[in-house]
Specification:
Structural class: alpha/beta
Helix content: 25-40%
Number of domains: 1
Low-confidence stretches: none
CATH topology: Rossmann fold
Number of strands: 7
CATH architecture: 3-Layer(aba) Sandwich
Mean pLDDT: 96
CATH class: Alpha Beta
Order of helices and strands: EHEHEHEHHEEHHE
CATH superfamily: LmbE-like
Distance between the termini: 24 Å
Shape: globular
Strand order of the largest sheet: 3-2-1-4-5-7-6
Strand content: 15-25%
Number of helices: 7
Oligomer: single chain
Bound molecules: zinc ion
């Protein structure tokens, strides 16, 4: 008997991201999903899956220009976000419009994401990885945590029971795909949709000048080559994909 061959971390299977037919893609700010997962979003849609976007904040703090009023920036970023998502093939977008700038209340965001999960009924969520070491932006940490908690809790009828009075029913997604992760376990071949991702990022004109856009493009492309190295394709987006089992009291999730 070769029982020692079985690794504990492999006892719980990792869900297969590309087989998911409906995905709720959650982002803290307009532009995060394109940067972290845009080419995969486009690939999933091309292969017949549905991707619904959910943006948590209104993006109104994303400028160093004091003369640009937050309300005007919110309007600009909504437009940029819609253009970018449309380019990738996204047809439905949900905007929660929490104020941007690091003051999210976790439980309030979680309740809204659980409501969206019960409405959209996705097979899987995508969201920024809240456990990225050195991530200093609490909008990113809180959005990632709120979405992970929603994956764990949306199937339980006594969690946010007010939704049931509105006619919604519990729904348990099969897992979550964290983009922007430092511990990825899933590498998606996005060679074909990479140009579309870069085009979508460039729609966020309020966020990038030509120099910063060039720097971001060079970094993301080099990283995509690194993620694809030795796998038989050119460019990859990387995700940490976990099931609900991994998300609770599971010591090996970090290395799964
Ligand atoms: Zn962001």
């Amino acid at each position: 008997m070769m029982q020692s061959e079985v690794k504990v971390k492999d006892l719980i299977p990792i869900p297969d991201l590309v087989s998911m037919r409906r995905i709720l893609c959650v982002q803290p700010h307009p532009d995060d999903a394109e940067i972290g997962a845009g080419a995969t979003v486009a690939r999933l849609i091309r292969s017949g899956s549905e991707v619904v976007y959910l943006t948590v904040t209104d993006g109104g703090a994303g400028t160093e220009d004091a003369s640009l009023a937050p309300a005007e920036l919110v309007r600009i970023r909504r437009h940029e976000g819609e253009e970018a998502a449309r380019l990738l093939g996204v047809e439905q977008m949900i905007w929660l419009d929490f104020p941007d700038g690091g003051c999210l209340e976790l439980s309030a965001v979680r309740e809204k994401i659980i409501e969206a999960v019960r409405r959209v009924r996705p097979d899987m969520l995508m969201v920024i990885d809240p456990w990225l070491p050195y991530e200093a932006h609490s909008d990113h940490r809180n959005t990632g945590l709120a979405a992970a908690e929603a994956v764990l809790l949306s199937g339980f009828p006594h969690v946010c029971p007010q939704h049931l009075k509105e006619g919604l029913t519990p729904h348990a997604p099969q897992g979550v795909a964290f983009y922007g992760s430092s511990r990825p376990n899933t590498f998606i071949d996005v060679t074909a949709t990479w140009p579309l991702k870069l085009e979508a990022i460039a729609k966020h004109k309020s966020q990038f000048n030509p120099e910063s856009l060039e720097m971001l493009t060079a970094y993301l492309t080099a990283k995509a080559r690194e993620h694809a190295a030795g796998k038989g394709f050119e460019l990859a987006e990387a995700f940490k994909v976990l099931s609900p089992i991994h998300l609770h009291f599971f010591e090996d999730a970090w290395q799964s």
